[in-house]
């Protein structure tokens, strides 16, 4: 819904995404992807050894690469054919769509909507070495390396180097740019931070009993204060420099998204802490409203619908990216001048279509499993 709000007049979508209000959904995607990878493949490393873990990770990366290539090819072919697309959807292809597609397949330039998949693939390629280092007790070395790359991202040098390389090889002539929309050197701290937590969980060393103590309750207030500062800053940023002047510049720099600023990381950690406290300690809270809200949130997170989507996340991800292009081309032009309720309804209905690829993939997996167990006669 957040992505659809870029091409449709949807207040719900805008307030569910990083444009205003809640924290960036992409941060959750990257951090929790690292956590799940650390948990699943960390257990495989502990139980079956390095070779088996590397083999499993290689298979997963190859599958993601196949999807990435297929999506890049599909988007390069269809984007020039679709009408009414805004500039942010078409500009990544520059004046040479085929060249842009080749660079995107090589993970060297982004295509809107699927660029985060390239980010994920690069991080997963580095994951086996990092998991092995963690297994050998080199936690400090991993943390220092991750922190060093993050600091480099904050200097802006990596972006400058990419711009220089683009000019040197002549990509400027085609309005193309090397690099990723999201700076991998900055965003990696979320993934590998999540990976370390996931590996800690794989070792059964994560103790959450602290969240039920009075000290944990006291930490809620600074966390909520950070979230409040972020929310006010997003309001200032959304108003533009003409309204707030120097305050706009300070807020925009402090909560820079592309390079993953320290302020944005702190706010993300605050959201995580509040969420963790609600889920772990909330159901036993002495305040009935908090306890009821926490139990309700747990029911939502464990609902069959969300679990089903999670089981087919890759297919859902691919469809939601394509959905934005199709919505912009064929539906958004008909929403101009319509009542807001009509527009919101169109966005909600479009969002519900993410269950279609999940259902199709579920059916496909069932057929494959059935064929696997059919006796083969010669």
From TrEMBL:
Keywords: Membrane, Transmembrane, Transmembrane helix. The chain crosses the membrane at residues 20-42, 63-82, 111-134, 141-165, 185-203, 215-237, 265-284, 305-327, 339-360. It comes from the Bacteria. Pfam families: OpgC_C. This is OpgC domain-containing protein. It comes from Octadecabacter dasysiphoniae.
